[in-house]
DNA sequence: GCGGTCGTTCACATCTTCTTCACCGCGCGT
DNA sequence: ACGCGCGGTGAAGAAGATGTGAACGACCGC
């Protein structure tokens, strides 16, 4: 997936360290499960762009998203909840109905 | 990070990304439904030229426009509304009575 | 075994979208 | 003035997409 050296992704007040499995929200560490983290990284790799569920599933789960599988939606929800609780003023994950999701620090 | 955004169409302050289903108006993301987006793309493929409803329907819906079907008009209206709200100073979609619609960034 | 977390799946709630209908005003020809 | 074709616009209903809480089993460390 990524480099082995100190990559650091910044998105608004979010700081993601893919190789460490660590996310800092405004400096405070977020507790994410593996799936949640992988999903966030998948989104983060395309900041500002719309990413389809298929693509997200491929990157965070591996393999192909089966028709009717809602795992992706469920985890988007879990992620949203945690991000929102950490940074209530932001809305990071935007839904584009029929297309997918977009990570963006701006409203 | 991935950088190949694929195709990217620019029309005035509009930036259309066909592969993503994303439109940026002056940098800000627009929220369009699938139909709205497809219609915009169909118009954008012929910027500055008049496109008939039949052609628009073929490209955005697929199949042939049935006599009496107003879907196209309705969605032109929805698109106009959203574009206008995003960029109030512009008038992108122009009606050519009896012929069709024309997308043009100029007033 | 016990108590935790985690990932998946289900069921239901809610929100969007799409289509279609109705009605409006406008311009045109008679 | 009248009727007619055309496009603009709002709204209703059904279909579809997404949000959300809960149940379940797998797994793991103790």
Q: Work out the helix count of chain A.
A: 3
The whole-number mean of residue pLDDT values of chain A reads 91
The total of beta strands of chain A comes to 7
Ends apart, CA distance between termini of chain A: 29 Å
Shape of chain A: globular
Percent helix among the residues of chain A? Answer: 25-40%
Tell me the β content of chain A: 15-25%
The oligomeric state of the chains shown is homodimer
Q: Largest sheet of chain A, if any? A: 4 strands, antiparallel
Low-pLDDT sequence parts of chain A: none
Strand order across the biggest sheet of chain A? Answer: 1-2-3-4
Order of helices and strands of chain A: EEEEHEHHEE
Structural class of chain A: alpha+beta
Largest interface: A-B, 14 and 13 residues
> What gyration radius of chain A follows from the Cα positions, in whole Å?
13 Å
